[in-house]
Amino acid sequence: MPRLRMSLRGVFFLILILTLSASSVSAQTVLSGVLKNYPDKTIYVYQTEDELSAVRTMISKVNTDGAGKFKLELNTTEITRYFLMIGSTEGVFYAHPGRNYTLTAFPTPNNNDFQRFDKTTVPLSFDGLEKDDSNLLIPKFNSDLYAFLDEHFYDFAVEKYRGSKAVKAQLKGTVGNDLAPLPVDGEKKEVETIDSVGFTNWVENFRLQMVDKFEVGFTNVYFSNYYRYTIAELELMAGVPAKTLYQEYLMSQPVLVKHSAYMKFFTAYYDRCLEGRKRVVDTSILRAVNVENDPSRLVEILMKDSAFFSQSVGQLAVLNGLKGLLQNSDYPKAAVKQTMKKMSEQPQCNTYKDIANRLVAQQDRQKAGYVLENFTLLTPKLEKWESASSLNGYTYIFFFADWCTPCKKEMLLLSKFQETYGKDIQFIAISMDDNIDAMKSHMQSNRNQNFTFLYGGNNPELREIFNLRAIPHSILLDANGAYMFDYTRKPSEGIQMDFDKIVALLRQPKGGKTWKD
Predict the structure, then answer these.
(1) What is the largest CA-CA distance in the chain?
(2) How far is CA 384 from the centre of its chain?
(3) Fewest Cβ atoms closer than 10 Å to its Cβ: which of 83, 328, 329, 456?
(4) Which residues of 267-303 are buried (b: 16+ CB within 10 A; e: fewer)?
(5) Sheet (strand 80-86) strand order
(6) CA angle, 157 as apex, 152 and 162 as ends, to 5°?
(7) Are 402 and 442 in contact (CB under 8 A)?
(8) What is the mean pLDDT of the chain?
(9) Residue 381 contacts residue 341 (beta carbons within 8 Å)
């Protein structure tokens, strides 16, 4: 009976979502407020293009005044998730078309008296939210979800429920992972995963509690899907068979590539389904990618499984799988990338063309041969500096911050390299400090460092351009402004060997060997 009740509600949710989606119209969303802890700062607004590639695009930006006051206007046709970023601090904002929002708090992250460079997520606070607003419902639902997971942490830890890694390991190699009999104790003849029944019941009880608690939220399309596919992921973890999950959550339903909860469930579902595949399937996939570069063949292989009957689901599963294969040593990256490219060119895969293209572009970015896009920074005198007109010849770019001790150690060594190679290679040091005064302080204390100092600030745009995830970080550009390596060594990692090759290349007559020779 619990499955029947859930199925009927699933039909209700589908009808509701389709009805509300059809009536969506474009409207302006206004976000304003006074952030006293962020005066004279820039708020950047990013949106994820799709949850598979996870590529973010900057939609807008607005400056706060001296008191922290700002006003931002966004045109939306449906409830949309945005990321608001100030420096390395970000918060999630769900924009409902036609609504006005007052942001009352954008917390400053607690760094425990030390600074860090990685991204910090903070909860945003709003004034006067409506009862069905995503900014109210999703944090409340997540709080209940985390409490549920925390309560049953031990049950996850002992890994006795059917969806656990321990059980999957025992089922490895059997035909149809979800349909195979569960392992039994040789003496007692009892199913070892007896706790899985209890776990499934806990998930069902949690689902029913959330239905009662958040009933008002189910008129909200975005929240309905968020709730629905989070429950689906819990059921997947509890060991509900893949075929049942497919019929309940994927069959004849829209593919929501821009929805985080949907794609989180879908990725976990895909991984679960392929864990028990036969060796012959592995071999077929290997040949389709490495030899044939044929995405259509991959879709055919998957659609033989009852968990991937739908062509749209099969195609998305192929893209998800190809993304994962980029980390698999059995599959050359060039072959995987070529298969992705072919998928983007096929008419029958037109639905996912943009995603495939973004996945391919991601593989080319910041890799050897990638031509750096133009970017703008400030000099210590607050003058505008543009890379397109200022980069001349081979260039070594080093990212640092005055508070970063490893950065300072690398720069002491880099200063010596500049003395040796400065006539042939341009050395640029970009400060990622929150305040330009910190860069000036560093320059004042290190007058012997004659790099071209530029101020980047903790600018999200700059972080995206260079895919900055940590500092110190460096890149080496050739005379055409292209990356010379997938990974550029830091001063302490032997970068002088590459400098020597560049100098040798510049000294030899034209028509000689390349720098790699």
Answers:
(1) 82
(2) 32
(3) 329
(4) bebbebbbebbeeeeeebbeebbbeebbbbbbbebbb
(5) 56-63, 42-48, 80-86, 89-95, 120-121
(6) 85
(7) yes
(8) 81
(9) no
**DSSP classification of residue 33:** E
CA distance 320 to 118: 26
Q: How many residues does the chain have?
A: 517
User: Would the pTM count as exceeding 0.70?
Assistant: yes
Instruction: Please report the sign of the dihedral spanned by the C-alpha atoms of residue 260, residue 261, residue 266, residue 272.
Output: positive
Helix (H) or strand (E) segment spanning residue 42: strand 42-48
Q: What are phi and psi of 384, to 5 degrees?
A: -75, 135
CATH of 376-507 among 3.30.70.330, 2.40.10.10, 3.10.105.10, 3.40.30.10? 3.40.30.10
Which pLDDT does position 471 carry in this prediction?
A: 92
The whole-angstrom separation of Cα 455 and Cα 382 is 9
Domain ranges of the chain: 2-128, 138-273, 277-364, 376-507
3-class secondary structure, 344: helix
Q: In this predicted model, what pLDDT tens digit does every residue of 131-147 receive, in sequence order? A: 999 999 999 999 999 99
Residue 19 CA, chain-centre distance (Å), reads: 30
22: helix, coil or strand? helix
* Residue 448 identity (one-letter amino acid): N
Confidence of residue 2 (pLDDT cuts 50, 70, 90): very low
Predicted confidence (pLDDT) per residue in 233-254, tens digit: 998 888 788 888 888 898 888 8
Name the band, by pLDDT with cuts 50, 70 and 90, for residue 177. very low
Question: Which region, left, alpha or beta, applies to residue 83 given φ > 0 means left and ψ of -120 to 50 means alpha?
Answer: beta
Q: For the range 12-15, what are the long-range contacts, defined as Cβ-Cβ under 8 Å and sequence gap of 24 or more? A: 13/218, 13/224, 13/228, 14/253
State percent of the chain over pLDDT 90. Answer: 42
